[in-house]
Amino acid sequence: MRLWSLHPSLLDRAALVASWREALLAQKVLAGGTKGYTRHPQLVRFRAHDRPEAAIGAFLVALQREATARGYRFDPTRIMRPMDPLSLTPIPVTDGQLAYELAHLRAKVTERSPAWLERLPAEGGPASIRHHPLFSPVPGDVEEWEVR
After folding, report:
1. Residue 16 CB: number of other CB atoms within 10 A?
2. How far apart are CA 70 and CA 59, in angstroms?
3. Phi, psi of 136 (to 5 degrees)
4. How far apart are CA 42 and CA 19, in angstroms?
5. Hey, how many other C-beta atoms are within 10 angstroms of the C-beta on 141?
6. Are 5 and 135 in contact (CB under 8 A)?
């Protein structure tokens, strides 16, 4: 499961679609609708939010908005608690995590859709990396929950 901290506009088609599907699964886990994936490390930050189900709903809303802007059809009725990402308390994400995810995405894109690579910022300072609107960058290393 990869719930990207990067802004959805940075994700290539495959990453955007996969993130949507995985976030829908995360939504089901957080709502208690499945016994699988309940200990997945990517869910730590959503569970730590004061409104976990609203937070994953806001995460999904941003993905759905990006998909719509690209002409894809992500069904918004699948979002149990749709929230504007900017209406919730942001979830902190370290700048080290953002840099790690950008490098990870660049490696994936290099293999599957090299043309998308030129849309991504160069690996460099975290200040140049756009983040998902639900998250708020803070100084730090790669997150402890990240599986490398």
Report:
1. 20
2. 17
3. -130, 120
4. 12
5. 12
6. yes
The length of the chain is 148
Residue type, 144: E
Task: Answer yes or no: are the C-beta atoms of 79 and 30 closer than 8 Å.
Answer: no
- Which of helix, strand or coil describes residue 102? helix
Record the tokens describing residue 52, joined without a space: 């976990």
Contact 37, 2 (CB under 8 A): no
User: CB–CB of 10/103 below 8 Å?
Assistant: no
Over the stretch 17-64, which tens digit does the pLDDT of each residue have? Answer: 999 999 999 999 999 998 778 888 889 999 999 999 999 999 999 999
Q: Where are the domains of the chain?
A: 8-138
Does the reported pTM lie above 0.85? yes
